[in-house]
Specification:
This protein is mostly helical. The protein has one domain. Helices cover about 80% and strands about 0% of the residues. The N and C termini lie far apart (about 40 Å). Keywords: Signal.
Length: about 140
């Protein structure tokens, strides 16, 4: 089956369009100014539909992409849960908190060194342990 350039690049276009939104939501979440989850999902869906329209994707293609996205999300969540279980086997709650605190401090120092101030740049997060814990609790 021969695919057009549009069909080949549609997933990449979708990823590029949604990436800034994901980074913005993540950055806001880390700063305690998290967006209402329902509003964020609505905004993402609107963005996705706009991308689909610009790419002139068929309904069938849109459905297939939405299914692929949902499968990917489920796989990532399952992997995150598996990772958290492994961390819990290795570290006590206190040790996990100490790790999160140390990572948070180093991240803040790194942002300060780059002159980004308290807010930082969207899309960069070196605070993996904190991110895992916070994202899992949001799910």
């Amino acid at each position: 089956m021969k695919m057009s350039l549009r069909q080949l690049f549609a997933p990449a276009l979708l990823a590029v369009a949604l990436t800034p939104l994901a980074f913005t939501a993540q950055a806001d979440h880390h700063e305690g100014r998290g967006m209402d989850r329902e509003a964020m999902m609505e905004r993402m869906e609107e963005r996705r539909q706009e991308v689909y329209e610009r790419a002139e994707l068929s309904e069938e293609q849109q459905t297939a992409l939405n299914e692929a996205h949902a499968e990917h999300r489920e796989a990532v969540l399952a992997l995150r849960e598996e990772h958290q279980a492994r961390v819990a086997e290795i570290l006590t709650e206190e040790e996990q908190q100490a790790l999160r605190d140390a990572m948070h401090e180093m991240h803040a120092e790194h942002r300060h060194e780059r002159g980004e101030g308290e807010r930082g740049k969207h899309g960069h997060h070196g605070d993996a342990a904190e991110m895992d814990t916070e994202e899992a609790s949001a799910e």
